[in-house]
Amino acid sequence: MSSFFSQKYAALVPYTPGEQPQDMQYIKLNTNESPFPPSPGVASAVAAEVRKLQLYPDPEATRLREKLAQVCGVDREQVIVTNGSDDVLNFAFMAFADQEHPLAFPDESYGFYPVFAALNQLPYLEIPLRDDFRIEVEDYLGLGRTIVLANPNAPTGLALGREEIRRIVAANPDNVVIVDEAYVDFGGESAVPLVKEYQNLLVTGTFSKSHSMAGARIGFGIGDVALIRDLNTIKYSTNPYNVNRMSAAAALAALEEEAYYKDNCRRIMENREYTTQALRQLGFTVLDSRANFLFARHPSLSGEEVYRDLKRRGVLVRHFNKARIRDFVRITVGTREQMERLLEELTQILEGKT
User: Fold this and answer.
1) Residues 248 and 309 grouped into a single domain
2) Cα(301)–Cα(41) distance, integer angstroms
3) How far apart are CA 226 and CA 72, in angstroms?
4) What is the pLDDT of residues 30-40, one digit of tens each?
5) Same domain for 84 and 216?
6) Tell me: the pLDDT tens digits for 38-64?
7) Sheet holding 285-286: strands in order across?
8) How big is the CA angle at 295 (ends 294 and 296), to the nearest 5 degrees?
9) Are 154 and 167 contained in the same domain?
10) 3-class state of residue 158 by DSSP
11) Residues 220-248, buried b or exposed e (16+ Cβ, 10 A)?
C-alpha cells in the first residue's frame, strides 16, 4: 500500500472475486453466472438507451421499481434498486449496524459479509453452521444483533424455509434481519411476503443469476417503507445515479419476459439434479442445493486437486481455502452439455488416481 493509504483501512482484506481468466477458453463453472443469454427484448431495450447516454439516468429508477413492486406484490415505496445486490447489502450494513447493533452471520456464507463489516468498521459475530452445514435457527433467536442470512446459503446451496425465516425475524424485533436471496429462484422459498408483516425485515435480490445479467449489475432491496427510506439516505449520500440507464432498461425488459427466465431456471434445476446424482455415483458427497451451484467433495481428492486438475482440462470451478471447506469445490450448474463435459473430465481424473 502507499504511504498515503488511511490507517483505518490498513488491515482491510478485500473480497476476492471469482476468476475471469483470459488465457484460454474455459467452461466457466466458477462464478454462478447463467449459462443462458438474456431474453430477446433486453438487447433492443439497451440499444434504445444508448442514444440517450448524454443524459443522466433516473436516480429513482421509477419504472423498474414499479415493475419490481408489481412482480413481488409490494408497493413501489418498498423497493430500492441498486448497482448489484452488493450495493444494497453495503448500504444495509451502513444503515442498520453500528457499535450498539453489531452484526451476526454464518461462519460459512457469502465472503463479502465480513469485508463489508470490516470496511465500515462494524463489530460482527460469525455463527458456526451445523456439522452438516445447515443454519441452526435456534442460534439466531433473540440474538440482539443485525442478522444477515444468505438464503439459499452460499457456498453450500442449503436453504431455510419461509417459516424458519419468520421465526428469526419475529424473535429479533429490535434489530433488522437482512435476507440475501441471490439464489432463491432456483428452488428456494422467498421471504418477500413477510415484509408486509415485519418492519425489521429487508430482503435483497439480484438480476445476476436467474435473469442472466451478471454483467449489467442490477440488484434490489424490498422492505418496510421506513427501511427503504433509510437505505435511500445512504444512497443519496454516496452515489444517487448508481444504476445506469442501460442496465435499468435491461432489467425492466427482462421482467416483461419472465416466462423465458422461469424456463431457464427449470432447466438449471433439472441439470442440477442430473449432475448431483452423477457426482454421487462417482463417489462425491454433494449437498442438497437449492441454488444454481453444487457444493461437493471427494474422499480421494482434495478440493484444490479437483480445482487444479479441472482447470488444466479447461473447466473452471471455485475452490475456497478456508479450513472447514477446503475439501469442497463449488460447481456452477450450466447447460447439460457443460455438465456432461465436467463429468467426463472428473471421471478421467479419478481413473488417473487409481
Assistant:
1) no
2) 45
3) 18
4) 999 999 999 99
5) yes
6) 999 999 999 999 999 999 999 999 999
7) 285-286, 293-297, 328-332
8) 110
9) yes
10) coil
11) bbbbbeebbebbbebbeeeeeebbbbbbb
